[in-house]
From TrEMBL:
Coiled coil: none annotated. It comes from the Bacteria. This is BolA family protein. It comes from Hydrogenophaga atypica. Belongs to the BolA/IbaG family.
């Protein structure tokens, strides 16, 4: 899997205002900004992203995914918007 493919999978299942994915084919890092994260704790945000990946997490297609998840307001406050 490529970073672009993983990014497309996440974007297809989660409304993203910004997404960056990097990795080596098994171990990935992602920065994800979504309005769907409003009012959710970090664990809930991560679970939402994992839900978009479905069985890919269980079949080892995506071995590890480190995430930084932000709401649009958090992203703007950090000066990233």
């Amino acid at each position: 899997m490529t970073a672009e493919e993983l990014q497309a999978i996440i974007s297809a299942g989660l409304r993203c205002e910004h997404i960056e994915v990097t990795g080596d084919g098994r171990h990935w890092s992602a920065v994800i900004v979504s309005p769907e994260f409003d009012g959710k704790r970090a664990i809930q945000r991560h679970q939402r992203v994992y839900a978009t990946l479905g069985s890919r997490m269980h079949t080892d297609e995506v071995h590890a995914l480190s995430m930084k998840t932000h709401t649009p307001a958090e992203w703007a406050q950090a000066g990233k918007a």
